[in-house]
């Protein structure tokens, strides 16, 4: 087994790097779109409370649908490749970002908001200087959760020609090649762990005030 894995990297290093690039590209696009949708949606749910239940319910229902099913549903609309994969992964990633953003904004202590109001701060200043900074830890946690889920689920994207480490995993399954399964699975796990560590460092940098 060990020699098979070494031989794979010696003869397929360029192919492996291409799969790594594809996996990261698809994951980054999906995460970016999920953040651009999830964070503003969370803001709207807090600002206009009547929106929270329908919006949260919508994305929870979409999250229940398996990622592979969403991928297949996107085929008639977007065809094969990275586009339908990104849409499916985005739908998977929005709920944790949305829910954590809402929770973070709601947990801002009322006395801080009252103090800001008594000091004459405008609504915009309250959101910028109080609500958003205090909600940031939970929002980042939601983004980290979404990122790890995206990377793990992006392996399914190879089913519709989007590339990534799913190519290795499904080839290993089809050919009964344990070495390919191990390379693909460990690569996805390593990417997930690296992403978690990246967000850990990001939280350390952005949330210095919490340690003061």
Structure description:
Helices cover 82% and strands 0% of the residues. By secondary structure, the chain is an all-alpha fold. The longest helix has 35 residues, at 13-47. The mean pLDDT is 82.
Could you name the ranges where pLDDT drops below 50 across 5 or more consecutive residues? none
Number of strands: 0
Rg calc = 21 Å
Overall mean pLDDT = 82
Which overall shape is indicated by the principal axes computed on the Cα atoms?
Answer: elongated
- Number of separate helices: 9
* Ends distance: 51 Å
What class would the helix/strand composition place it in?
A: mainly alpha
- Helix proportion: over 70%
What is the string of SSEs from the N terminus onward? HHHHHHHHH
Estimated share of beta-strand residues: under 5%
Major sheet details = none
Task: Give a quick precis of the structure.
This protein has 212 residues and is mostly helical. The protein has nine helices and no strands. The mean pLDDT is 82.
Topology of helices and strands:
Layout: H1 2-11, H2 13-47, H3 52-64, H4 67-78, H5 82-106, H6 110-118, H7 123-153, H8 166-175, H9 178-206
Helix pairs in contact: 2-5, 2-7, 3-5, 4-5, 5-7, 6-7, 7-9, 8-9
């Amino acid at each position: 087994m060990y020699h098979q894995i070494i031989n794979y990297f010696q003869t397929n290093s360029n192919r492996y790097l291409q799969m790594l690039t594809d996996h990261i590209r698809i994951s980054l696009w999906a995460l970016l779109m999920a953040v651009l949708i999830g964070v503003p949606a969370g803001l709207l749910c807090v600002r206009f409370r009547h929106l929270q239940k329908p919006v949260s319910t919508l994305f929870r229902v979409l999250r229940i649908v398996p990622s592979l099913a969403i991928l297949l549903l996107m085929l008639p609309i977007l065809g094969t490749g990275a586009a339908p994969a990104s849409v499916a992964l985005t739908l998977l990633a929005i709920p944790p970002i949305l829910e954590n953003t809402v929770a973070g904004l709601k947990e801002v202590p009322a006395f801080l908001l009252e103090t800001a109001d008594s000091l004459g701060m405008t609504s915009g200043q309250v959101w910028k200087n109080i609500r958003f900074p205090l909600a940031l830890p939970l929002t980042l946690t939601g983004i980290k959760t979404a990122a790890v889920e995206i990377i793990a689920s992006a392996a399914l994207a190879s089913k519709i020609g989007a590339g990534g480490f799913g190519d290795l995993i499904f080839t290993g399954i089809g050919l009964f090649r344990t070495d390919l399964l191990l390379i693909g699975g460990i690569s996805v796990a390593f990417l997930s762990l690296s992403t978690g560590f990246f967000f850990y460092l990001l939280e350390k940098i952005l949330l210095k005030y919490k340690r003061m």
